[in-house]
Amino acid sequence: MNTEPFVTSSINYSVDNGSPLEYYLYEPGPSVTVNRPGTDIRNVCIYDGWSQADQCSVDREGFEIFPFDGGFDDFDQDDAIKSRFYPQVIEFVKRHTGAHRVEVFDHTIRRRMPEDLAQQTDVQRPAVQLIHCDYTVKSGPQRVHDILPEEAEEILKRRVAFLNVWKPIYRTVEELPLAMCDATSYTLDDLLVMNLMYSDRTGEIYVMRYSPKHRWVYFPHMSPHQALLLKTYDSEIDGRARFMGHTAFEDPNTPPNALKRESIEIRTMAFFDTVA
To answer: Shortest CA distance to 171 belongs to which of 77, 50, 70, 259?
Structure first.
């Protein structure tokens, strides 16, 4: 019998209705009919992961949590994040994965804010309340080509993993925590491609269809001295976690006067010596 504490909350799955799922990062014309993701809202149990925090593996469940206290708090300074925080993240990922090289390619600060695209910037965005994984079988290698075009062909002969580092920035998370879908609890058939529609290109990520087999985990009250390591793509096909669905959600235990969540996610590419 499972005795772990949990909360019950609604999260946003997507429906496979035979048409491409799309999310526009610009305002499409009035003639465009959008097949939106996240329309299958389900109530699920989301388990408190703290009792098993030291047993999670980014290569099995798709996520791990570690102490992270680099003393950096200039998160309102974009240049400082890149020059002083990125190196801390690189060392963090190397230490916990064994990667011989890690490249940071962007970051996003998440806050509760309007979904209105006009109020968002490249690095200031709302928390995403849609189950998703940042990359697909196709878009993972493409991202390597985009970021490191001259090295990509040689790099992709060996193992490459995309890992996000997610952490609170100023204070403990009291609302909109992050939930992760244990990668051992779903199959690749549960992943649906969603097209990201930019004005000049189309990308793709995964969203998820519902299954009662999915196991959801979160770490309530994460502090700025802790960070999640999240697997969003892995080129290795030896049975380890390759993708991991995750989403922000409304925690029913959130107090009425909760401080608004502020977090940062740093996206990295990690390179290994293993031949793909």
So the answer is: 259
| pLDDT tens string 148-163 | 999 999 999 999 999 9
Instruction: Give 117's DSSP letter.
Output: G
Which of 65, 40, 6, 47 has its CA nearest to residue 208?
A: 40
Question: Is residue 210 packed enough to be buried (19+ CB in 10 Å), middle (13-18) or exposed (0-12)?
Answer: middle
Helices (H), 39-181: 78-80, 86-97, 139-147, 152-155
Name which of 243, 219, 222 is nearest 233 in CA terms: 243
Asked whether the CA dihedral 205, 236, 186, 164 is positive or negative, the reply is negative
CA of residue 88 relative to chain centroid, distance: 19
Which residues is 9 bridged to in the sheet? Answer: 44
Residue of 104, 98, 236 whose CA lies nearest to 163 = 104
Q: What is the pLDDT of residues 75-134, one digit of tens each?
A: 999 999 999 999 999 999 999 999 999 999 999 999 876 554 444 445 567 899 999 999
Q: Is 119 helix (H, G, I), strand (E, B) or coil?
A: helix
Beta carbons within 8 Å of 19's beta carbon, 6+ residues apart = 35
Residues sharing a CB contact under 8 Å with residue 70, sequence separation 6 or more, in sequence order = 85, 88
Tens-place pLDDT, residues 176-198: 999 999 999 999 999 999 999 99
Listed in order, strand segments (DSSP E) in 177-261 are 178-181, 191-197, 202-208, 216-218, 226-234, 246-248
What pairs with residue 206 in β-bridges?
Answer: 133, 193
* Pairwise CA distance, residues 136 & 233, whole Å: 7
Nearest to 205 by CA among 231, 165, 243: 243
Handedness of CA 5, 10, 11, 15 (dihedral sign): positive
